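Batch job 17 of 40 flagged for manual review because the log was empty.
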Amino acid sequence: MALDPVDAVVIGAGAGGGVIAKELACAGMRVVLLERGRWITAWDDHKDDLRNQRTSVLGAPFGPDDERNPRVAVDRRGRELVVLPSDGAYSNNAACVGSGTVSYGAMAWRYMAQDFRMKSIYGCPPGSTLDDWPITYDDLEPFYEKAEWEMGVSGDVAPDPFHAPRRRGLPMPALPPNREYEILKPAALRKGWHPFDIPMLRNSVPYNGRGPCMRCRWCVGFACEVNAKNGTQNTVIPTAMATGLCELRTDAMAREIVLDARGHATAVTYFDAGSHLQTQPARLVVVSAGAIETARLLLNSKSRLHPNGLGNRYDWVGRNLQGHAYPRAVGLFDHDTYDDVGPGASIAICDFNHGNPGLRGGAMLANEFIRLPIQFTGMTPPDTPRWGHEHKDYMRQFYRRSIAVMGPVQEMPVFEARAELDPRVKDFWGIPVARLSGGRHPHSVEVARAVVVKAAEWLQEAGAIRTWTNVPGLDLSGGQHQAGTCRMGNDPRSSVVDRNCRIHEADNIYLADASVHVTNGGFNPALTILANAYRVAAAIVKERRA
């Protein structure tokens, strides 16, 4: 039976898609929201310390399932491997209603004004495609504010002198400090740095009808059982559905965007929960499937006008895949630092996000989320075995006497870091899968090496009796912070979408996820995805009314 046409089909119910669906439905548009995963609740997500033993990939327990959703990863030596969502090389982003906003740690960072002008400030290093965004921080600022107040952000960024101008503070105060905060804050002040409370998409007090965080250890990587962690699944998507104009369809795997002879989108084909192919007609399409899956869908949407994939005339779809290089310093102490008060991460500095001599950008540095015992086994010093009596003695002595400080280094985009279609491997539904290849730019590793020194200095000033560091190598970066594969820009020859995130060559297809980010900042990107989705939705509504 043919499906009735709607005003908009939104593909992906994560950070971007949830906001888009809500804004369009509240503007009076009929919306179908397609999500390939299920609606996950805390009851589906057991709070078990051994749960993460199956995989260290953040969000993997929330889908997609291994059996139906392979990818192909090509390492830097050219070796190909079929990988599953529970493998690190998969670069997984959770597949469920809310996507990564269900499992994330909920840090809610605004990018700095400099992050939108990286090429102008620093110049482009050889071998990189570094560029400026076609929008500025000022263009995004009111939408940052809207995301913070509508979804709910707690924290206190006032002590940070490096943040960009803002018209309004955060709607909720920070959570009370934990023990790591109390150890690290005076140490940072002694160094002349500027510590402050991390902004979090998390209720510190009752907000919008939901209670506050209960400070449990099972936060990052888990769903919140008291609904205090704010994602699109418990904020904007229920609001969209309450209008009666938004229909959410789960277990819906998008296959293709259908175009007419003029290159105008007319429908989306998808496989429903019974694996039956459906065609949903629509007046416009918004793709918010994550940087890898959005690129994959566009490349699979071929037509006479787009023989190489939708929006891919100049071979930019799937290029510039980036995440974050995460250097980490670990400090051991001669006294307890652990108090079992979640979420753990609480204090940050932005002193080294920009202004590092000879380097392009940098990273925010913060203490880490609570590490469950099974995760702490991977935080051993270089000279400590990973098994046996010596390892057990280390675990007993230092699990409660350690602090980790780390930060997401802003990566230099690389044209050859990419997601393309694999010519042989297909998923359960017969759709060609994403093939990931390429690697980091060497300068990203250089920045990581410099930043991790500051992390170690912080721990040493705090009284650590021993520290060591880990710096990532040149392998491809993606994961929950994946970005850049369909960057926005003013020139169709070097970008996929325009400043309003509409595909240059298709007047009724928009993208609203981190695929459009030109650079990825030295921060977790969630709040920027949300803010930009509000901005894109405003542009769509304005044009529709005009």
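Reviewer: the log was empty due to a logging misconfiguration, but the result itself is present. The chain has one domain: 6-44+59-545. Unflagging and moving on to job 18.
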